[in-house]
Specification:
By secondary structure, this protein is α+β, with helices and mostly antiparallel strands. The protein has two domains: about 1-110; about 145-370, NADH Oxidase (3-Layer(aba) Sandwich), CATH 3.40.109.10. Helices cover about 35% and strands about 20% of the residues. It has helices at about 35-40, 60-75, 85-95, 100-110, 120-135, 165-170, 185-195, 275-280, 300-305, 310-330, 345-350, and strands at about 1-5, 10-15, 15-20, 25-30, 45, 75-80, 150, 205, 210-215, 240-245, 255-260, 265, 290-300, 335-340, 360-370. The strands form four sheets. It has a seven-stranded antiparallel sheet with strand order 7-12-11-10-13-15-14, with helices on both faces. A three-stranded antiparallel sheet has the order 5-1-6. It holds the Pfam family Nitroreductase. This is SagB family peptide dehydrogenase. It comes from Microbispora maris.
Length: about 375
């Protein structure tokens, strides 16, 4: 039979060991020294017995043949026109435009019919014990040694449209903006309503049983915060940054929204319009906006509770939920808005001061006043 190396697996170097990761069936195999020679031999379809041609030594030839047979039995080497080959062909065809790494992530985080699932009770029991020895990362960030700008409280008067169905039907992506500055009270109301914690009615904020703030937010001992948008496990990994291009009362530049006390922390970084457009993927219309709201994900918040890679998907969904809330709030306030993920991540990281190892740039909402009619 003819076999070749599977197209739906990857070689990884892990703790000094070469590992084959079969991401379709979620299996990993530690490879003995020299096995990579067999894998290279079967880069294309060849008869299984051809592996004996790798050497003139009969004993060594038997050794390589036994290894090749084991690899074929475990679909590291796949049989031409066999079920695994046909399955891989369909996947390669469907995912070709996005490349092998995209499909590798998707299928490595795809759950199977027999995937073990935990109950809420099991999660709670484990987390109650974990929080005593391994506290979660902070649910809120506050940056040291930066100037702070207190924001006005959210004024209900900023919402011109208050009926949910009406706002849903009005919502559009609009890439043209008026020449007037964004009112600070509207920006403040939008940020607090979208990204601020909801007040609690049943007591103070606690972390691992320690009282933190008598006027705190709804949370439990492992910082399960609640906001107006849903978040997987109530972890809320999304941090919000404001780039003020033309906002009343704010110096132009980048700010971090400190949700715990409803303030803006000035990062001291400013881009001219040309550089701002470059950071936003050369989308010229961004230069007419009053502000950009950047969404980033702090992966440690989710990893503390969820150690499996599928949860990376939740980071993206969280930003989707939050950015839709911002869409609706901007619409309710009579603003124009468009969300875009077409960013030059590295430029945005430099602007916001994000370490891409664990603080991921995901997307931005571009907001401005409506053009005069």
């Amino acid at each position: 039979m003819n076999v070749r190396l599977s197209a739906c697996g990857a070689l990884l170097w892990d703790a000094g060991q070469l590992v084959w990761d079969d991401y379709l069936d979620h299996r990993q195999f530690a490879l003995a020294d020299g096995v990579e020679r067999v894998l290279r031999w079967f880069a294309g379809f060849r008869p299984l017995d051809s592996v004996r041609e790798m050497t003139d030594d009969p004993g060594e030839a038997d050794h390589w043949h036994k290894i090749a047979a084991v690899l074929a039995d475990n679909d590291v080497l796949i049989t031409e026109n066999g079920p695994r080959h046909q399955r891989e062909q369909a996947i390669e065809q469907a995912w070709r435009p996005w490349g092998p790494l995209a499909r590798a992530y998707h299928f490595s985080s795809r759950s199977h019919a027999g995937t073990a699932m935990r109950t809420a009770e099991q999660d709670n029991e484990e987390l109650e014990a974990k929080v005593l020895t391994d506290p979660p990362p902070p649910a809120f960030w506050s940056l040291p040694a930066v100037s702070r700008h207190a924001l006005p409280d959210a004024d209900p008067a900023v919402w011109r449209h208050r009926d949910l169905i009406d706002v849903l039907h009005r919502r559009r992506s609009r890439r043209c903006f008026g020449g007037t500055a964004l009112p600070l009270d509207v920006v403040a109301a939008l940020l607090k309503t979208a990204a601020g914690p909801l007040p609690r009615a049943d007591g103070p904020l606690t972390q691992a049983g320690v009282t933190l703030d008598p006027g705190g937010v709804l949370t439990d001992s492992w910082q399960r915060v609640f906001k107006t948008s849903p978040s997987g496990g109530a972890r809320h990994p999304t941090e919000v940054y404001l780039y003020a291009r033309d906002v009343e009362g704010l110096a132009p530049g980048a700010y971090h929204y400190a949700a715990a006390d409803h303030s803006l922390e000035y990062l001291g970084r400013r881009l001219d319009d040309e550089r701002l457009v470059a950071a936003a993927g050369d989308q010229d219309w961004v230069a007419g906006a009053g502000a950009l709201i950047f969404y980033t994900s702090v992966i440690a918040r989710n990893q503390w509770k969820y150690t499996f890679p599928r949860v990376y998907r939740a980071l993206l969904m969280d930003v989707g939920h939050l950015s839709q809330t911002v869409y609706l709030l901007a619409t309710a306030a009579g603003l124009h808005i468009t969300f875009t993920a077409a960013l030059r991540d590295q430029l945005v990281e430099e602007l916001l001061g994000c370490d891409p190892a664990g603080h991921l740039v995901i997307g931005t909402s571009v907001i401005g006043t409506a053009p005069a009619r």
